[in-house]
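S1.2 Input.
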Amino acid sequence: MGLIFDIKEFGLHDGRGMRTTVFLKGCPLHCLWCHNPEGISSEIEVARNTGKCTGCGLCRQKCAHEECRGLGVCLKRCPGDYVRKIGREYSPEALAAQLRKNESFLKYGGVTFSGGEPLEQADFIWETLRYLSGLPTAIETCGFVPGRVFQQAIAKINDIFIDIKHIQTRKHRQFTGQGNELILQNVRQLMESRKNFTVRVPLIPGLTDTEENFSGIAEFLAPAKDRVTVELIPYNRMTGAKYRTVGRSYLPCFDETQAVNKDVSAFAERNILCIAY
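S1.3 Output.
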């Protein structure tokens, strides 16, 4: 079984063509700017619309509903429907059946697995792929996964999007809670595979959008300049509201209002295609 927190249809930014994107729960990183906090935990969670909740307390009363078991709240008693469950279990067959409902347009786009970190549920994805034969597939990964698992992804998935958040391991650990050695090792696997791939760099003001970081990433990727595309992804200023929904605090250690650096010259100088959004 796989644990999924969202399925978005008709997407245009998660691979080539029109996509259905499957968001899987669980991530080994804790990025200071994570814009999908509902995907961090590998457990089912409860979300509340704190802006509309009246504090009536009805959701805290005990109930016997099967879908509420273990949550500590009743999902059905809220008069305004302001309480919901984050995370639903799917079998590979059930997920594939839902995805294939849009098969007519997915043939011209595909299915993208995202998260969280989708490769934390790699076996579930591989089993799902058995039922998606003929459909193009993509994966969006932070790259912090065992080399063996990443090797399987290279072999099984059509298009791979992998993050390099910072080229310096000390700063990467400071910003995400983990070093980048394993991530860079997996990027090297991609470079050696002769497969085309995309590297994404989140543009976090003053943290990842520095010339030093861009130059380091460009130098690292230069041997694969003919097969890699770099995308500079802007910071999502709506992130804080999502944290409040899942009961987490969000205190960014950077100036959210600061304009980000989108200078692609470090990549252009090394003949690497770079797109700044």
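S1.4 Remarks. Residues 45-85 form one domain.
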